[in-house]
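Input/output pair, single chain:
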Amino acid sequence: MKILKGLLYTKDHEWIKVEGDNAYIGITDFAQNSLGDIVFVDLPEEDDEFDREEEYGVIESVKAASDSFMPIGGTVLEVNQDVLDSPEAINADPYGNWFMLIKISDKSQLDDLMSPEEYEDFCEKER
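Output:
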């Protein structure tokens, strides 16, 4: 299982890469491995606004469909069209194939996310 340094993580197995007031969001290696072959991704539109823990989309694999929830509140600045066109790319590189870029609405919410080390411990307990 691959966990990258410099990212923050959620209990829903999403990663967040913070750049200033913005953040990229995607799913982790643990998540893509658990889901199996990903065949479809439904993501929000640009300018959509979400609160933390609000559902923003769906990931479908050959095994199951899984709802996706916002790890932090924000406004969608950009959606990764490549992931929509080729969802299987997430299985090949879950950290290189982000879902969306958001403008963070409340940076204090980042304090509730896990460090790479905390996430690794969390995943060990999930197995």
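Residues 18 and 68 are 19 Å apart (CA to CA). The radius of gyration is 13 Å.
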